[in-house]
Amino acid sequence: MHKILVTGSEGQLGSDLVVALRHVYGVNNVIASGWRTPPQNAKTSPYAIVDVTDSASITAIIQDYQIDTVYHLAGILSAKGEQHPDRCWDVNINGLRNVLEAAKIFKLHVFFSSSIAVFGPHTPKLDTPQITVEDPSTMYGITKVTGELLCQYYAQRFGVDVRSLRLPGIISHTSPPGGGTTDFAVEIFHAALQTGTYTCFVRPETRLPMMYMPDAIRAMLGIMQADTSKIKIRSSYNVAAVSFSAEELVAEIQTHLPHFTCRYAPDFRQAIADSWPAVIDDSKARADWGWQHQYDLATIVTDMLQALKPSSVKDSCHHEENSNLSVSSTIR
Ligand code: AKB
């Protein structure tokens, strides 16, 4: 049985990934980790404090738990990275380098989460190809491009079995995103249900690639479980699910909550969003290791609202929305 370490397990992706991995590999075989003690009520045990910028901290945990696989999710996202560029470089680059060095020594199987942030203003915005211009305008994007090249280098030079995905904005109801440009697509659901109004930090026509968490989990497990012969790209694969604009998301939410209103007050994150593609071509991932998404905008919105609705409202809606329950799940 595999022994798996998840770095950044308290983040948006990590929280759901740990649950999914424990479901498949057993609770005690998946070690959640982060740089600080988790909240007392967090169901994260077994959990270890790991500072990814400290190679000794990574080596110790790998030896202590006889780890053979690392899902390396620890990182600072795009918006926060612009506020703390030095820290973003340190955590995202030195953290990855320490994991790859450990992988070289201990023959680890590694997953690295890259991002659509590797692309920039000169990248084609529509059907962005797998191999194209990568000229990111954020420190986060620069660390992801560099990270992808490091992964490819360690795979080619040292035979490290590292696999990676360029993830789009991830939408989930279990834990909030932290410090990203695509965070509006999660915040909006909470605001719609709690106050009925939302102030969106990007313009209405801003269209970005997005993915629902169950699809993201399926993508991460799918690439890691694929036969080695199928993994032909060792930098990072484009993966896509849906693309929609902020105003299309609002309109879809309004089909469930007609009184919901959204106003727009773009801030510094608008420029980041404008530098990213709108629609990604992920045909290589589909052809090489069988990637397929399941959720479109309508099913994401139905599922998110169902999951986040206060339980009193859920009870009264149970009967009329019973047909929607078929798409309501955290992990499939
Ligand atoms: C962010 O907005 O920074 C992330 C990403 C697209 O990588 N969600």
Oligomer: single chain
| Helix content estimate | 40-55%
Task: List bound small molecules.
Answer: 2-amino-3-ketobutyric acid
Taking pLDDT < 50 over at least 5 consecutive residues as the criterion, the unreliable ranges are: 315-332
* SSE sequence, one letter per element: EHEEHEHHEHEEHEEHEEHEHHHH
Quickly name the level 1 CATH class of the largest domain.
Answer: Alpha Beta
What's the total number of strands? 12
Indicate how many domains the architecture comprises. Answer: 2
Largest sheet: 7 strands, parallel
Based on CA atoms alone, the radius of gyration comes out at: 19 Å
Shape: globular
CATH superfamily of the largest domain: NAD(P)-binding Rossmann-like Domain
The largest beta-sheet arranges its strands as 3-2-1-4-5-6-10
Predict the CATH topology of the largest domain.
Answer: Rossmann fold
Count of helical stretches: 12
Q: If you average the pLDDT, what whole number results?
A: 93
Class of secondary structure makeup: alpha/beta
Strand content: 15-25%
Q: Any guess at the CATH architecture of the largest domain?
A: 3-Layer(aba) Sandwich
What is the terminal-to-terminal distance?
A: 22 Å
Domain NAD-dependent epimerase/dehydratase: 4-239
Organism: Oscillatoriales cyanobacterium SpSt-418
Biased composition (Polar residues): 323-332
Protein name: NAD-dependent epimerase/dehydratase family protein
Description:
The protein has 332 residues and is of the alpha/beta class. The chain has 2 domains: 4-171 and 210-238, Rossmann fold; 184-208 and 241-282 and 294-317, UDP-galactose 4-epimerase, domain 1 (Alpha-Beta Complex). It has 12 helices and 12 strands. The protein has helices at residues 12-25, 55-65, 78-83, 85-106, 139-158, 184-194, 213-225, 246-256, 269-274, 283-289, 297-308, 311-317, and strands spanning 4-7, 30-34, 47-49, 69-72, 109-115, 161-167, 169-171, 197-200, 207-212, 237-238, 242-245, 261-264. It has a 7-stranded parallel sheet with strand order 3-2-1-4-5-6-10, with helices on both faces. A 3-stranded mixed sheet has the order 7-9-11. The longest helix has 22 residues, at 85-106. The chain is globular, with a radius of gyration of 19 Å. It starts with a strand and ends in a 15-residue tail after the last helix. Mean pLDDT is 93; it is low at 315-332. 2-amino-3-ketobutyric acid (AKB) binds next to loops. One of its GO terms (biological process) is L-threonine catabolic process. Residues 4-239 form the NAD-dependent epimerase/dehydratase domain. This is NAD-dependent epimerase/dehydratase family protein. It comes from Oscillatoriales cyanobacterium SpSt-418. Residues 323-332 have a biased composition (Polar residues).
